[in-house]
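User: Let's play a game. I give you a shape written as C-alpha cells, and you guess the letters that built it. Ready? Here's round one.
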C-alpha cells in the first residue's frame, strides 16, 4: 500500500496550515502523476474553498481499504477547472490498514483532585485491554509528574517533543512496555502543544493520525485539573473518563471538572470511575450521588462506569514498578479493572460501526480544530 494505490475518485479530507482556513475540507483525487497529484478544489458545506499556492496541506486519502496520510504543498491551482496540484510525497508519512470494521478510541483520563489514582488505573486498564487482544498505546500527558514510564520500568529515550521538533517520527518514540502495551512519554513536550508553528502542528497531527490507524485504543493520562492542553485532549477524545475517590474533596472537585468540561462542550460522552472504595456499597453510592447531582444541576447524564476497591496491592505494585494487572491478576483491584476493560471491549464491538472511518468526527480532526481555534 502506498502512493501507487492512489486513483482518481478517491475521497480526501484535508486541513491547511492557514489560520484562515481552519476546517476539515473535502476533496477528491482527480489525477495522479509521478510528481504531482491533482485534487478537486476543496469544499466545505458545499462551497469551494479557494486555497492558495504555497499552502501546506495535511491530506487523508481513503483508498478503499486503507487510509493514506501525508503532508504536502499546493504547487499550482486551476481556478476554472476547480482543481489544485499538490506535490506527490515520495514517502507518505502514514500508510495504514483501516478495514471497514476497525476503529480507534481515544480515551483521556482526568480528575479534579490530584492523587486519586488516574495513573495507576490507566496503566492497568491498558494492560487489561491488551490482554483482551487490543492494541493499546498510552500517552503520558501529565505535565507535572510524567511517570508512566517509571511505573512501568520502561526506558523511553525519546518523547513527544522529538516528534514535534521533527527529530523523530511518532513510531520512533513509541516504547514497548510490560503487558504488551506501548507508551509515549510526554513530559515537557506536552507543554509545547500550546503554541505550535505550522510545521510542528503538521508533525503532531500526522503523529496522531498514525496512532489512530495503528491502535485500537489511545489512552491519555493527564494531571489533575484543566490546563489548556489537557482540555484539548478531553474535548477531542471519544470518552473523557473522570476519576474520583469517595473523599468529599475529590467528589466536589470531580463535580467541578465535569461542570467545566460541560461548559466548554456538551457533546462529549463522559464516564465516571470511583477509585479507592472501601466497600462495593460505597462505590455504588458515590457513583449514584455524583451522576444524580450532575443530572439535576447540569442536566447531563454522565455514565457511571464502575468502582475500584482500595487495595494495598496498588502501592506495593508502584514500589515494585510491576503493574498489578500482571503481578497480581487475581487480586480484587486487578479483577475490577479487568471487568471494566471487558465491558469496554464488548461496548466497542457494538459501537464500531458508529465510530469507524469518519475523518470529520475522529479524534485527530477534532484535535486539529481545537488547536487551530485556540
Ligand atoms: N485502588 C487503590 N487502592 C489503594 N491505593 C491506591 C489505589 N489507586 C491508587 N492508589 C494510590 O494513590 C496514590 C496516587 O495514585 P496515582 O499516582 O495513580 O494517582 P494520580 O491521580 O495519577 O495522581 P496525579 O494527580 O498526581 O497524577 C498512589 O500512592 C497509589 O498507590
Ligand atoms: Mg498521575
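Assistant: Ready! My guess for every position:
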Amino acid at each position: 500500500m502506498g502512493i501507487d494505490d492512489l486513483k482518481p475518485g478517491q475521497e480526501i479530507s484535508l486541513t491547511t496550515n492557514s489560520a484562515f482556513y481552519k476546517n476539515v475540507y473535502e476533496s477528491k483525487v482527480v489525477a495522479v502523476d509521478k510528481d504531482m497529484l491533482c485534487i478537486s478544489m476543496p469544499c466545505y458545506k458545499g462551497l469551494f474553498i479557494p486555497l492558495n499556492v504555497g499552502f501546506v496541506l495535511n491530506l487523508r486519502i481513503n483508498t478503499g481499504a486503507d487510509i493514506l496520510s501525508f503532508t504536502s504543498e499546493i504547487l499550482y491551482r486551476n481556478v476554472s477547472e476547480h482543481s489544485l496540484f499538490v506535490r506527490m510525497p515520495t514517502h507518505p508519512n502514514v500508510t495504514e490498514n483501516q478495514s471497514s470494521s476497525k476503529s480507534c478510541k481515544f480515551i483521556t483520563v482526568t480528575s479534579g483532585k490530584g492523587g486519586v489514582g488516574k495513573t495507576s488505573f490507566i496503566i492497568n486498564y491498558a494492560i487489561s485491554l491488551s490482554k483482551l487482544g487490543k492494541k493499546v498505546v498510552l500517552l503520558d500527558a501529565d505535565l507535572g509528574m510524567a511517570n508512566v514510564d517509571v511505573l512501568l520500568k520502561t526506558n523511553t529515550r525519546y518523547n513527544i517533543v522529538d516528534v514535534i521538533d521533527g527529530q523523530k517520527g511518532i513510531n520512533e518514540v513509541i516504547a514497548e512496555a510490560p503487558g504488551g502495551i506501548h507508551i509515549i512519554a510526554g513530559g515537557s513536550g506536552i507543554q509545547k502543544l500550546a503554541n505550535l508553528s505550522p510545521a510542528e502542528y503538521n508533525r503532531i497531527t500526522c503523529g496522531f493520525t498514525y496512532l489512530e490507524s495503528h491502535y485500537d485504543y489511545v489512552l491519555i493520562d493527564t494531571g489533575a485539573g484543566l490546563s489548556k492542553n489537557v482540555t484539548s485532549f478531553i474535548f477531542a477524545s471519544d470518552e473523557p473518563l473522570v476519576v474520583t475517590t469517595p473523599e468529599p474533596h475529590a467528589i466536589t472537585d470531580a463535580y467541578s471538572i465535569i461542570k467545566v468540561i460541560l461548559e466548554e462542550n456538551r457533546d462529549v460522552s463522559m464516564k465516571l470511575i470511583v477509585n479507592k472504595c472501601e466497600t462495593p456499597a460505597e462505590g455504588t453510592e458515590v457513583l449514584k450521588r455524583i451522576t444524580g447531582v450532575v443530572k439535576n444541576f447540569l442536566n447531563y447524564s454522565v455514565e457511571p462506569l464502575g468502582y475500584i476497591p482500595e487495595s494495598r496491592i496498588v502501592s506495593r505494585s508502584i514500589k515494585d514498578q510491576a503493574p498489578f494487572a500482571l503481578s497480581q491478576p487475581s487480586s480484587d483491584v486487578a479483577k475490577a479493572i479487568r471487568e471494566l476493560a471487558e465491558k469496554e471491549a464488548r461496548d466497542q464491538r457494538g459501537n464500531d460501526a458508529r465510530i469507524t472511518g469518519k475523518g470529520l468526527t475522529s479524534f485527530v480532526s477534532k484535535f486539529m480544530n481545537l488547536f487551530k481555534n485556540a
